[in-house]
Amino acid sequence: MISTIAKSKVHIASGLVLIVFVASHFANHAFGMVSITMMERGREMFSLVWRSWPGTTLLYGALLAHFLLALDALWRRHTLRMPVSEAIKIVFGLSLPLLLAEHVIATRLEYALTGFDRGYPEVLRGIGVSSTNIAYYVVVVIVVWAHGCLGLWFWLRGRAWFQRFAPVFHMLASISGRDSPKTIFIASETGILSICRRQS
Length: 200
Prior knowledge:
Helices cover 86% and strands 0% of the residues. It is an all-alpha fold.
C-alpha cells in the first residue's frame, strides 16, 4: 500500500506539472493582445512540448493522479469541517473536470481521433458566438487559477522562507487572478476582430 507521505508527494508533483501547463497556456493566450499570428506562433511552441508523447503522458498522467489523490485525501478525512479557503480549493478542483470537458474534447480529443488541429481562429470563432461562451471561459480561467494558487499556498505556507516573501506572492496571485480573465478576454476579442478583418 502506498504511504500517505508518498501520496502527498505525488499529489504535489502532479499539481506543479498542471500549474506549469496552465501558466504556459495562459501566457500563450496573452499573445492575442498582439495578434492572432502571435497566438499561433506561441501555440506551435506550446504544442511542441505538450502534444509530444512525453508531454501528453506527463500532462494527463498528472491530471489523473492529481484528481484521484484529491478524492483519496477527501475520503480519508475524518470530518468535512475545514477552513473556507480549503473548501473553495476542493470544490473548484472537483468542478474542473466538468468545466473543462468541452474544451478538452474540442481541442485535444478531436485532434487525437481525427488529426484535425483546431487552431486559435477556430477556437476564437467558437468563443465569440455568444456572450454565454465568453462568460463560460472567464469562469473556467478564474476557477483554474484560483485552485492552482490556493494549492500552492497550502503547500508552501509552512515554510519559513515563504512566510518572509508571502506578501509578494499574495500580491502576484491577486494581480494575476484579477488580470488573467481580463487579459484573456481582451486577447480573445483582439483575435476575433483580427479574424473578422481577414474575412471582410
